[in-house]
Amino acid sequence: MNRVRERNESAWLLPAGPGINHRLRDDMRIFDDSDEVDVVIVGCGAGGSTMAQRLARAGWSVVAMDAGPFWDPEKDWVSDEAGSHHLYWTEPRVIGGADPVPLGSNNSGRGVGGSMIHYAGYAPRFHPSDFRIHSTDGVGADWPLEYNDLKPYYADIEEELPVAGDDWPWGDPHSYPQRPHPVSGNGDMFLRGALACGITAKVGPVAISNGRFGNRPHCIYRGFCLQGCKVNAKASPLITHIPDALAHGAEVRADSMVTRIEVDEHTGKATGVHYNRRGRQRFQQAKTVVVAGYSIETPRLLLNSTSTRFPEGLCNDFDLVGRYLMVQGAPQTAGRFDDEVRMFKAPPPEVSTEEFYETDPSKDYKRGFSIQTVSPLPITWAEHVAAQGHWGAGLRQYMSDYVHWSCLGALCEFLPLPENRVVLSSELDRHGLPVAQFNYSRCENDRALMKAAQSVMEEMLKAAGADEVITINRYAHLVGGARMGADEHSGVVDGDCRSFAVPNLYITDGSVLPTEGSANPALTIMAIAARVADRMSTGNHATQGGRS
Amino acid sequence: MSSLPLDPSAGGGRFPGFDVMGQEKHWDEVTSAVVVSRLGMPPDIRFFNAAEEATATALCDQLLDQREPPRVPVVNMVDARLAEDQTDGWHYEGMAPDGQSWRDSLSALDEDAMAHSGCAFAEAAWETQTAILQAVQDLGSEDWHGIPASRVWSLWTRYACTAFYSHPWAWEEIGFAGPAYPRGYKNIGVNKLEPFEVADAHPAQDPLRKGTS
Ligand SMILES: Cc1cc2nc3c(=O)[nH]c(=O)nc-3n(C[C@H](O)[C@H](O)[C@H](O)COP(=O)(O)OP(=O)(O)OC[C@H]3O[C@@H](n4cnc5c(N)ncnc54)[C@H](O)[C@@H]3O)c2cc1C
Ligand code: SF4
């Protein structure tokens, strides 16, 4: 047996070729609401599924709930853009602030696998500098962790997904378990442009299997990664962590929307979660509660969990819940070539550069951005074109030119600001719960980064031979909202993701990130969760709930 | 074969003989069912009332320049999503959820048409409708009937483009082959085509380059 398989057998538990292991689901262990399980996990996305797999392996009794379905990719997903709408979290939400951030398709998922079902698949690490930008750059916040605390977990998760890419020269230089994929027209244009501009570019890093991995097949370069990978080539927790969790006795309880976390007023400890399943309100008892519902739903759940002890919401004694929520500035610049690029052929994530990631002392802004290929399918491309002001005949004509366009995207590190936050709206959802309102406004540094990133992308595309370039401004990747900090005045949870206010309550999703870097977040979220689970289960950390 | 009328000078006829549905035998069943349903009878109008249906039809025809049949049934597809509340969930603070915003904006269009030419939007001449819409777009982030015009504009174009560019006829117009599972692509790279793909017959027809549009 190889090392990954000893640690996480998921890829070998799947059937050969596409599909899921129905037997594993049919035989799944089922707990009673009255069983006081060792841990109940809220949300089966990047952070939640990793916890479930690690803790189940360590022998904990685990119930992992998700508000959405337990997907069967063969039956539930389609190789079609408009037909994939059900993958997104589309419960009502309100957006405000000076730069409101549209949610839905572009930002969050639902169901077992979470947002990684329809994420692109980039899996870069954060840089060591990300963990102390307050000390070095005087902006944002320092983490209560260092890069080296996460490093072994990065390497583990990279093997488990697995990640394919060139040897990585940036941040802490490292290599990947799989060789880089061949590049398509869009990746080729990126490489040509970078070469001509003297910018180092690398293929990867993508969590898409280049070759057979366990029983998972090779990518077939069909380009529908953002619609869910029916092939099982692209990693998501549904296939990378959930099968192993089930095999180790975890229960995955889908279609279960957690509405409130219960805390015992006398002991001050969490006792379990209230949830709604198929219209019925239920309560699952647990010794430990782990929340991993994404940067909007996690703060919302805490804010909705009020009690005499926590009148302003759970863990919100210092008005930090929901605050310092970040998005990455994600402008997309497209270039027009007489050649046919056909960017829809191949996975959108292919090539990236982190050359502009770090603070450049010669610039009047702090921190930086990364640039990657993005390859919008027709509907998303039409939005891109419509954003230029084209409509009617102009739009149709522009769209007829689709095969000639190449598209790059930047990820700009926006700074954590206290007013960028989730609050409760007066609007109620169908469970009668206040919905989340997400307010967002950029600061000067954020705007400067977006401009700088756009001009580099324009330069690259022109150097590759594009005669025209167009840019659309957008945002991606929400993180923060329940950040980790050195103490309860600076964070909701500590460096081990345990809440300061409730000793047996943990948060292990993207909400805990104090800063966002210019890297896509999923790998970091999984690495943090793997570390927390390690510390909880090996007793490195005195858990106050946990295993009996 | 593309059945949508589009003049070559406006981007039509770029992929002669390209046949998206001819590849259906290579798609998985679940995806086929979803795509084929778009070619069948359009869903009945359930969300819009008759007046709204008329205005929405004229609006969608304008947004995608569908002047004559056959058309992609954009308005039925938009109506179906609103009837099923298949929205993206979010809405702007101070703006109603999508369904109500559609109703409000359609009646605002009728008000504009009434003020402009004394009739409902759908009854106005094509050029008048175009001018009314252009005036809305030109407002940018300024208010139009109490809502930032750009937000209303984005609501309309989001729904209309999603409907139109989910249709195989529209894919044929832009050279996109649609579903690609389980077959995938074998020839990736600049200027590389699969045997069933068709090269652009007018590669220099760049809509941005002066003199070509
Ligand atoms: C279009 C798109 C492209 C992306 N591309 C990339 C990329 O290339 N690389 C990358 O690293 N990241 C990417 N991301 C971001 C990445 O997917 C997320 O950052 C990551 O999945 C977040 O992990 P999480 O654990 O915080 O939440 P999620 O993975 O979203 O999981 C949260 C889960 O909790 C469930 N849930 C929420 N509330 C409740 C509740 N009250 N009760 C029960 N269940 C609940 C949800 O249904 C969901 O399944 C992309 C995202 C999108 C939308
Ligand atoms: S391109 Fe590859 S990874 Fe993406 S959806 Fe297709 S098979 Fe999966």
Task: Please provide a written account of the structure.
The complex is a heterodimer of chains A (548) and B (213). Chain A is of the alpha/beta class and 548 residues long. Chain A has one domain (3-21, 37-537): FAD/NAD(P)-binding domain (3-Layer(bba) Sandwich), CATH 3.50.50.60. Chain A is built from 15 helices and 18 strands. Chain A has helices at 3-7, 10-13, 22-26, 46-57, 73-76, 133-137, 147-160, 185-197, 237-240, 242-247, 294-304, 378-386, 393-399, 444-463, 522-537, and strands at 37-42, 62-65, 93-96, 202-203, 251-253, 256-263, 270-277, 280-291, 326-329, 332-336, 351-353, 369-373, 405-412, 421-428, 434-439, 468-472, 475-479, 505-507. In chain A, helix 7 (147-160) crosses helix 15 and helix 8 packs across helix 14. The longest helix of chain A has 20 residues, at 444-463. Chain A is globular and about 70 Å long. In chain B, 42% of the residues lie in helices and 3% in strands. Chain B has two domains: 11-38 and 167-209, no CATH class; 50-164, no CATH class. A two-stranded antiparallel ribbon of chain B has the order 2-3. In chain B, a hairpin with a 2-residue loop joins strand 2 (143-144) and strand 3 (147-148). Chain B has helices at 29-37, 50-63, 74-83, 98-117, 126-138, 149-164, 168-174, and strands at residues 90-92, 143-144, 147-148. At the A-B interface, helix 5, strand 3, helix 8, helix 12 and helix 13 of A face helix 1, strand 1, helix 5, helix 6 and helix 7 of B. Strand 3 (93-96) of chain A pairs parallel with strand 1 of chain B, so a sheet runs across the interface.
- Could you estimate the helical fraction of the residues of chain B in percent? 40-55%
For the termini of chain B, the CA-CA separation is 24 Å
Largest interface: A-B, 75 and 70 residues
Number of domains of chain A: 1
Question: Can you list the ligands bound to this structure?
Answer: flavin-adenine dinucleotide, iron/sulfur cluster
Radius of gyration of chain B: 19 Å
Q: What about the largest sheet of chain B?
A: 2 strands, antiparallel
